[in-house]
Amino acid sequence: MRNTLAFAKQQRKELRHKQNEHERWQHHYGSLHIDELKKLSGTEFEDYLAKLFKTQGYLSEKTPITGDYGADLILHKDQQRIAVQAKCYTGSVGVVAVQEALSGMAYYRCQSAWVVSTGNYTANAVELPMCD
What we know:
Layout: H1 2-29, H2 34-37, H3 42-55, E1 59-62, E2 73-77, E3 80-87, E4 92-93, H4 95-107, E5 112-117, E6 120-121, H5 123-127
């Protein structure tokens, strides 16, 4: 009985911590508009995306800041692995970002690669086929 009570208390504590963490994130980022997102640093944008994808049911792991092989985040959901290249740009994202995402997909053995940006995409970036 004591073990059950201790377990329940620990679960409640962990849930409260997760709820507080989510509320802090929501307060800080939840209502940001695109102009505000464009002001984030690259790592802040990656953190933002990791939390955003988490709210959508994805497990998210950040790759190293340098030497990431073209993927900033690796998402996991429904037995799928997705390499994400995050670009916090005010301009256009070119074909190089797509190539980096594909490289990250291969290196991290993912089934898909996404390029997520605050900017636009060049015609070449849109035309280069992504493997899905």
